[in-house]
Write a structure and sequence with these properties.
- This protein has eleven helices and 13 strands.
- The chain has two domains: about 160 residues, no CATH class; about 240 residues, no CATH class.
- Helix 7 packs across helix 8 and helix 8 runs antiparallel to helix 9.
- It is globular, with a radius of gyration of 22 Å.
- The longest helix is centred in the middle third of the chain and has 22 residues.
- The chain is of the alpha+beta class.
- The strands form two sheets. Strands 1, 2, 3, 4, 5, 6, 7, 8, 9, 12 and 13 form an eleven-stranded antiparallel β-sheet that branches.
Length: about 425
């Protein structure tokens, strides 16, 4: 596994005259860490942003000292910021008396380890650290009042196990990877259900997810498809599970062969029906949109998007073209969405689900369309290297907020220690 950190501060930077902040372009870099602009907004005079510190990923077992050294350097820098200080193309124009952060952790983890993450989700891993007011000391403890202290992940695990139990009986041994995958899918749908009682749209799409996947759900489904087919009683398709076939599928992403379409439609519908048996009794209406009141898009001020229906999203995971076709009938923004897709270098409608492509949700929600060809996380396309365990990239976005700078090194180590138990 690998783990990297982000510490978004309330330190305000103003772009120097004639310069523009770009989220993906660091302001400054120093070895294994960088400073980047976040929450970029336009002003009458140009731009301003929040200052964010980010690290490169570290191995949770072998790079403990390197992580500690990196965090020490970040702490020293953030503790000594001054008004008017230049950081890259930005100038510090607002500086809190005590610099604090809303931390996030990004991890690379095998699907079959996700059930263990649920197991430790309510452990008080930050006990004894100074956290923000009301923050709860768990990996999902933004605040005690938010009811996001890991319970939703445990609930998702409960329904995932219930779904597997419907088909496999009481013994789910050998389906840990399927359980992990279903936990992510159901976690999103539980988040969607929770939004129904709200009265306005989300500020941005990523707030949907209790545990946000930066990995394409379609890519993850392909890794468990053989086991799902067996659970559902579908005839096996051995040629689809060879390394040679998957390498060709992923590299070329050619259209699904016409002779397969009827077969894939049935399989996708069976997948969605299977999950509906545990979700519908809980009041999760699959006909409703994933984002009940929509979400705002920073690049289109004033616009509100609702995203796909829950049913269409599930179908698109198992058979992307089927979900795309169903959703096209219900989304008035669909034409504009498809126009944007043409400009996406990596997008192929047959190899991604409806929540993963950036124009339909977020620039990092399901961004990885090539199954984690991300060198910084030292993971590879699983269909090219079958000896390397496939690891999904996830964001822990509900870590306790308001952490003062002096606590950042201890905070990062507490996360590292907690997650190291998952990959012993």
């Amino acid at each position: 596994m690998a783990i990297g950190f982000e510490f978004q501060t309330a330190v305000e930077l103003t772009a120097q005259e004639g310069e523009k902040f770009v989220r993906t372009v660091p302001l400054q870099s120093a070895g294994k860490w960088s400073m980047v602009p976040d929450e970029i907004v336009a002003t009458d005079d140009g731009q301003k942003c929040d200052l964010e510190y980010i690290t490169e990923p570290f191995d949770e077992h072998t790079q403990t000292n390197q992580l500690a050294g990196c965090m020490g350097n970040i702490r020293a820098h953030a503790s000594n910021l001054k008004m008017g200080q230049q950081i890259g193309i930005g100038t510090v124009t607002q500086l809190p008396k005590v610099v604090s952060a809303a931390p996030q952790a990004t991890i690379g983890i095998p699907l079959d380890r996700l059930p263990l993450l649920a197991k430790i989700s309510q452990d008080e891993v930050f006990k004894g650290l100074k956290l923000g007011v009301g923050a709860f000391p768990t990996l999902f403890g933004m605040t005690a009042e938010s009811a996001k202290t890991g319970g939703d992940l445990l609930t998702a695990q409960h329904f995932a196990r219930q779904a597997i139990g419907l088909l496999a009986g009481s013994d789910g041994t050998g389906h840990e990877d399927v359980e992990g995958f279903l936990m992510l899918v159901i976690g999103y749908l539980l988040g969607s259900k929770g939004l129904e009682s709200d009265t306005k749209q989300l500020e941005y799409a990523k707030l949907l997810a209790p545990l946000m996947s930066r990995t394409n759900f379609r890519a993850m489904y392909l890794l468990v498809e053989a086991k799902v087919d067996k659970l559902l009683g579908n005839a096996a398709r051995p040629s689809y599970y060879t390394a040679e076939h998957m390498r060709d599928y992923w590299c070329t992403a050619g259209p699904v062969r016409p002779s397969d379409k009827d077969d894939l439609t049935g399989r996708a519908e069976a997948f969605a029906t299977w999950l509906s048996k545990v979700l519908t009794p809980e009041g999760i209406d699959l006909a409703k949109p994933v984002f009940p009141h929509g979400y705002a898009t920073p690049d289109m001020p004033g616009s509100v998007r609702k995203g796909p229906s829950r049913q269409a999203w599930l179908l698109s995971i198992a058979y992307p073209e089927l979900g795309l076709g169903i959703d096209r009938q219900h989304d008035p923004d669909r034409a504009g969405y498809e126009a944007v897709l043409k400009d996406l270098k990596d997008f192929k409608p047959e190899r991604t689900d409806l929540l993963s492509p950036a124009p339909y949700a977020s620039t990092s929600l399901g961004l990885r369309t090539k199954a984690l060809e991300n060198k910084s996380f030292q993971v590879s396309n699983p269909f090219e290297n079958t000896q390397e365990p496939f690891r999904v990239i996830l964001e822990l976005r509900r870590l306790p907020k308001g952490t003062p700078v002096d606590e950042w090194p201890k905070y990062a180590n507490a996360v590292r220690e907690a997650l190291a138990h998952l990959t012993k």
